[in-house]
């Protein structure tokens, strides 16, 4: 274990020496499910309105220690008008946390998501209309579990796909009611005309990196759990991931339309980085839908990892002992009995972007920064790219 501690020290040190916002230098892209979600609308903004929220301080310190240039935060409750984002930047990121240097993100993007938005339909088939299970994405209020992108580089005109209908995806994996002989009939035809694919949203954000555009493709598919024999969440997770695989593959994304009605996928040859908590491990857990994206043309998997994840897997045991995948690549620290720790957070660049270094911020217990491991049940994933 002493040797492992030395290895992770080098990894953490590498993360602390971050590239600067200069197109000639490597650019650090990152994703972090920060668990900055709250149980009621308005609670996150209240927590961030002062610099004293302990969890937010830890999240900010993780960001300050790793210093991404372009960062996706998952599970950051959406507040109209950027008020929560601005409060986090001002009260937390702009203040050095426990000796870390402040960090400035002059550009930010957030937008409405499907979580908590009432559908007016009984989508979970519990006999009543209303509640988190009947929202367009599971949530108790609109915007819960939202997303934020912070950037040192200008963000161009976004394409959003919040309202794209699941049934409009060719060959969609629609859930089936096991009590009837008809296939794929969990939702009625009337419901299918309204059911959305994205549980939060899918965003295509063009980032101007020194005159070169990198499309930051961000999302947060539903967990492949908390459903029944119809497996509607498992299937939705797979198709939410497939969306990006189709979007970046020439001609396969022709069916896609955005919230403004513009059709088609990404322009062939465009540079992109797919990022987010995909809730899918390629080998373990309840959904392996991420394989669709890992196998898509031009997608590069830098396979970031950490020694801290190995230590956690060995110490926690349980389901971790039967996993097929190496714990080195885990990004989430979950229930030991099921599903165990998993790799579910990704930063996946495209050719011709060149990955130089990558890592998962998960210090071992011997490291002083291990005090940040409980900031979230996920760990920040970063990749340095030559653009």
UniProtKB/TrEMBL annotation:
It holds the Pfam family Exo_endo_phos. InterPro entries: Endo/exonu/phosph_ase_sf, Endo/exonuclease/phosphatase. Residues 31-378 form the Endonuclease/exonuclease/phosphatase domain. One of its GO terms (molecular function) is endonuclease activity. Keywords: Endonuclease, Exonuclease, Hydrolase, Nuclease, Signal. Residues 1-23 form the signal peptide. The keyword DNA damage does not apply. This is Endonuclease/exonuclease/phosphatase family protein. It comes from Saccharopolyspora antimicrobica.
